[in-house]
Specification:
The complex is a heterodimer.
Chain A (H helix, E strand, L loop, with lengths): L17 H11 L12 H20 L1 H5 L8 H26 L5 H9 L17 H21 L5 H29 L3 H20 L11 H6 L7 H19 L9 E3 L4 E3 L5 H11 L3 H14 L1 H22 L1
Antiparallel strand pairs in A: 1-2
Helix pairs in contact in A: 2-4, 4-7, 6-7, 6-8, 6-10
Chain B lengths: L6 E7 L7 E7 L3 H12 L7 E6 L11 H5 L23
Antiparallel strand pairs in B: 1-2, 1-3
The chains are: A mainly alpha, B alpha+beta.
Chain lengths: 328, 94
């Protein structure tokens, strides 16, 4: 997902102390944890990893789509894409703020991302080769994100849950504009339809990988689920995504690139083919098609903006000094 | 790194005459920039017609450990709610 394979740490001792038992009881009773409340160090650290990774994904996620802003085929599509990419920046900011309530600074998170210490979602390391990729991202990538984020609106940590509510409201626009773009291409010329099919071919499997490794290999899931910062397993969400998307692809007249995909009446779900997990782990390790380029672009934006950030601080300091001098 | 902007809490008043409500926080070098940033981050979809920003360090919050002391006494005072008083059904306007 936007946060993949989040490490939950190792319990320090076999016995949970009384405070931790009370904390777990609160979570089990459905009472939200707020920033000033006592929380186990592992919960705090896991959430910092999860929320910051999610925030980084929103920020890096601007890059593949931003690539097409100047080349959008119409003013309408350009305005929509601009609004969408601006939303992604906003989502990153809501999430950074939520993470900061856990005691990590914004600059520390940014530095961790730029130094390659913090992860972001594997999906954003794939290139956007054609305009149809913008549609496929909205439809499939944002579609997958919504599937994961709607349950997170009920997660145990108050600031994270509140940020997710805002994000989910806006993501619905993202997914719909993507599907609308795919519809326009699918109803267009043969070349436009082929472009849409090509985008689906390239984004389908990476979108399914977004949910993270299969449940059997997902070592931190049990702890995250007990803490209610993960509400469904990776495989549950992935199945939901497949079931939801197949009829949408059929409506577009596009073919999902999976020969093993078929309805299983007994299970009431679609069966689908094996995912290439080697590819996923390779991208997570930094060897995807765009890992290096994404980080370089982020670092450059940060470095190039430094003089401006500093100038705003200098201006604020001068204005404060002038106000103080006037008052004296 | 050296120049991290201070944190501000953002409050927005919607169009419907309700009070300003806390919507989140952001970093900005001064109050003017905090308002500008809040407009971009928190009002992209007509969420409000007025913005307040307050430096986060200027907010004093109650301590969660004092929760019982502060809020439990209200629980035993059910008579403060109008529903405490059974009213004769045939009498109107109460």
């Amino acid at each position: 997902m936007y946060a993949q394979m989040v490490d939950t740490g190792t319990p320090s001792s076999a016995t949970i102390d009384a405070r931790e038992a009370r904390f777990q009881q609160r979570i089990d009773d459905g009472i939200r944890i707020e920033p000033q409340d006592w929380m186990p160090e592992r919960y705090r650290k896991t959430l910092i990893r999860q929320i910051s990774q999610h925030a980084h994904s929103e920020i890096v996620g601007q890059l593949p789509e931003g690539n097409w802003i100047t080349r959008a085929p119409s003013l309408k599509r350009k305005a929509i894409l601009l609004a969408k990419v601006q939303d992604e920046a906003g989502h990153g900011l809501y999430l950074y703020s939520a993470a900061e309530t856990l005691g990590i600074s914004r600059d520390q998170m940014v530095e961790d991302l730029h130094a390659g210490r913090a992860k972001y979602s594997s999906i954003f390391n794939y290139p956007t080769l054609t305009w149809a990729d913008v549609g496929a991202i909205g439809w499939l990538v944002d579609g997958s994100a919504i599937m994961n984020q709607i349950p997170l609106c009920r997660c145990s940590y108050g600031p994270y849950a509140r940020a997710m509510i805002r994000v989910c409201k806006e993501e619905a626009f993202h997914m719909r504009q993507g599907y609308d773009l795919m519809l326009a291409l699918a109803r267009g010329t043969a070349a436009q339809k082929a472009m849409a099919q090509d985008a689906l071919n390239r984004w389908w499997w990476p979108s399914l990988m977004m949910f993270g490794p299969p449940d059997g290999d997902s070592v931190h899931s049990a702890q995250s689920q007990a803490w209610k910062i993960k509400l469904f397993t990776n495989d549950e969400l992935r199945q939901k995504m497949v079931d939801q998307t197949v009829p949408q692809a059929e409506h577009l007249g596009l073919t999902i690139p999976d020969p093993d995909l078929k309805w299983n009446a007994e299970r009431g779900h679609y069966d689908f083919g094996a995912i290439d997990w080697d590819e996923f782990y390779n991208v997570v390790k930094g060897n995807g098609p765009c890992n290096r380029e994404r980080l370089e672009t982020r670092r450059k934006a940060w470095d190039d903006g430094e003089w401006f950030r500093d100038a705003l601080v200098a201006h604020a300091e001068k204005a404060a000094q002038r106000a103080a001098a006037k008052a004296a | 790194m050296k120049n991290q902007w201070p944190l501000w809490e953002v409050f927005i008043r919607s169009q419907h005459g309700l009070a300003h409500r806390h919507v989140g926080s952001l970093h900005a070098p001064d109050a003017t920039m905090a308002i500008n940033n809040a407009r971009d981050v928190y009002t992209r979809r007509n969420e409000g017609v007025s913005i307040w920003v307050v430096r986060s360090v200027d907010i004093t919050a109650s301590n969660p450990d004092d929760k019982a002391e502060l809020f439990d006494p209200a629980q035993s005072k059910v008579y403060r709610h109008p529903t405490f008083f059974p009213m004769p059904e045939e009498v109107k306007g109460l």
